Amino acid sequence: MKNKFVFQRSLFIGLMLVMSGLLIFGNTPDLPPLKKLCCLNKLFLGDGNSVLREAREMSLEYVFPPANLYLAKEHELPSKKLQSRQEAEITLTCVYDNYQVNPALQTDWGFACVIQTSRGKLLFDTGGNSNILLSNMEKMGIRPGSITLVFISHVHGDHLGGLKGFLKKNNQVTVFISDTFPESVREMIKSRGAKYVEIANSKKIVDSIYSTGVLYGPPSEQSLIIETEKGLVIVTGCAHPGIGRIVKKAQQLLGRKVYLVVGGFHHPPREVVEEFRKLGVKKVAPSHCTGDEVREAFRREYGQDFIEFGVGRIIQIKNN
Fold first, then answer.
1. Using CA atoms, how far apart are residues 211 and 216, in angstroms rounded to an integer?
2. d(Cα 306, Cα 212) in Å, to the nearest integer?
3. Domains along the chain with CATH numbers
4. Predicted local distance difference test score (pLDDT) of residue 48
5. pTM of the model
6. Reading across the β-sheet that carries 174-178, which strands appear in turn?
7. How far apart are CA 283 and CA 303, in angstroms?
8. 63-76 residue pLDDT tens
9. β-strands 90-97, 314-317: how paired?
10. Neighbour count for residue 199 (Cβ, 10 Å)
């Protein structure tokens, strides 16, 4: 009896291996090769009446996640390094800042930047005044309706204040907000007819663009990471959790060198310049709340790799 059971078990396992191989390596009408796997949901092997209760097909990506995406929980990234897979050519256009590059545009305390890839446009933060935001966008030839995603770094008014007015012009967007935001922000977004996604942990936004996840400041804040062929581009709102900490977080998540850090650095000590060098940051574009003294320290140290950033600045990063 025992020998019979061992034979049954061996035969069953062998058959399942063959079936799995056919499903994995064979072409299927609805999924490309290497995309299907026979998943045993309930399997009982105990006696001569062993039965397969349920087998169902599931995409391989839920077993072996795509190289650029971790699907453990709502597309969260793992805490360990991810290897680079998808890289984008990007254009960053500053549409709101208290520093000015284009004198035809209006300055104001706050920050907003439009990020364009081949997959569309994302608005990073909205400044503090929607009239100024929309006016600057119009002068730079950026239609509100061309934006499909909005990413809000943190709850302060000089980054969130323009959102309500922007949604009046375009509510066909998904807004990525921190899970620490007050309920009033969620209600405002819903009342304007837009959708929102709450961010807690590191998360893929779209191909090649990720959130660091919410880091404690105070206030809590998320930053954006973009994979390019030249390396990582990190966009920060105010960097309340610490700009060095944000850079290290991005390196930890994606395991790549940092090509550019742009945005507000939140008045860090001058030693941050040396820290950036040690972290291997190639180029810097500090603005908004960084402070004049630290900006000048970066300018002296980085020379041609220092980018004067402010409203009206356009940065293009192309693949080699």
1. 14
2. 24
3. 2-62 (no CATH), 90-317 (3.60.15.10)
4. 37
5. 0.75
6. 195-199, 174-178, 147-151, 120-124, 111-117, 90-97, 314-317
7. 9
8. 222 322 222 233 34
9. antiparallel
10. 23
